[in-house]
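Pilot study result, target chain (481 residues):
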Amino acid sequence: MNQKRRQLFGFPTTFWTANTMELFERWAWYGIFILLALYFTGSTDDGALGFSQAQKGLLMGSVVGILYILPTITGAIADKFGYKKVLIISYLILASGYLLMGYATTYTSMFLAFLYVALGAGLFKPVISATITKTTTEKTASIGFGIFYMIVNVGAFVGPVVASKLRELDWKYAFWMSSAAILVNLILVIFFYKEPAREKVKQALGKTIKEIFLNLGKALSDIRLVLFLIIIVGFWTMYNQLFYTLPVFIEQWVNTAEIYNWLSGFWPWMAGFIGTEQGTVNPEMLINIDALYIVFFQVLVSSLIMKYKPVNTIITGFFISSIGIALWFMTQNGFYLFLSILIFATGEMASSPRILEYIGKIAPKDKVAMYMGTYYLPLAGGNFLAGILSGNVYTRISDKYYLLSQEVGKQGLDIPEISDTFSKNEYFSRACELMNLDQADLTNYLWATYHPSNIWMLFSAIGMGTVVLLFLYDRLLLKTK
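Predicted structure:
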C-alpha cells in the first residue's frame, strides 16, 4: 500500500519531483537566455547594456561553452557528496546569480555574473539526468525520458513568455523571475526530494576526477569518435543561432508590426498579449514558437522515426534544419518565421534526441558509458563557435548599426560614434534626420543596399556541410549500409 502511495503512473515521487525541478530550472534558464542577445546589444536608453555584437558573441559563446564542459566534473562531485547537497548548492548559486546578472552593468561584471550562473547550471545538469535514470527501469526508461524531454520544453516555452512581458516593464524583472523560479526549486529539493539509491564513492574526489579525464582521454583516442564529435559541432554551431543571432536579426530587420496588425483584426487579446505598446511583437515571442512546436509534435516525430536508423534520421534532421535556418534570414516579412521555425524545429526533433543514441551505437560494447561521457563536448564547441559567428561575422554582414555606420561614412554625415553618452537609438534617429527618412524607410534602404540577409548562406552552409560530412563518415569510415 505504501509502495502504491509513493508511485504515480508507475514512477516514484522523486521522479516527479525531479521533473518539476527541471521545469522550473528550464523556465529560469530559457527565460533569460532567449533575451540575452537582445539585452546585451540593445540600446542603453531602452534599459539594455549596449554591448557590441562581438562582445555579445564572446560572452555568450565562451560562458555557455564552459557550462557544457562542467558536467564532466560536477557529475563526480554529486556522486561523492550526494545529489541533494549538490542541488541545494546549485540552487543557491543560480538564485543569487540571476539577481547579480540583473544588476551587472559593465562587461566584466556581467561576464563574471554569467559565469557564476553557469557554475550553478553545471552542478544541476548531471544530477537531474542521473535522478531520472535512477528512478526509471528498463521498462519505464523510454516513457520516462519522453516525459522528461517534454517537461524541458514546457519550461523552455513558459519562461520566455513570462520574461518577455516582464522585460517590457523593466529588464531587471526578468532576472528576478528567474531567481524566483529557482527558489521554488530550493523548496522542492529541501522538502520533497528523496536521494535515489546510489553507490557510495569512497575514494578521494581528486582521484575520481583524474579517472574521469583518463577515461575521457581513452574514449578520445578513438579517431572515429573524435571525427563524429567534430562533425556534430557543426550542427550545434548552426542550431545555437536560434539564440545568438536570430533575436537580434528580428529586432533589427523584420517587420513584426504586420503580425501584430493581423492578429488585432480577429484576436485582439492575443495581439495585446504578445505585442508591445509600439504595435510590434517582441523577437523572443516569435523564437519561442520553436519550443511550442516541440511540445506539440515531438512525440509524433519520434514515433515516425523510431523505426529508422539513428544516423539516417540525424542526417535528415540536419538537412531539414539547414533549410529552416536559411529561411529565417531571407525576408523581412515576419509571417515567414512561423513556417521557417517549424521547418527548423522538425529537423531538430528528428536529429537532436538521437545524437546520444548514435554515440552509443558506434561505441565498443564495453565502453558505452565512457563514450557517452563525450556527449557534451560538441555542445561546448558549438556554443563557442556560434558566439564567434554571431559576433564579428554577423557585424560585418548584417548588423544594422555597423552597416549604417558604413553608409554614414559614405555620405560624409556628421554623427557622433555610439558611446556611453550617445546611444544606438540616438545614432539611428540622427541618421534618419540627416538622410530625411523615417526609421522604417532607412531600415528598408539599408536592407536593399547592403543585403544583410546574406548571412543565411553562412549558417545554412555550415548545416549542409555537416550533412555531407556525416554521410561520408557513416558510409565510408563506419561502412554501415
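One observation from the pilot: The first strand starts at residue 7 and ends at 8. A full batch analysis is planned for the follow-on phase.
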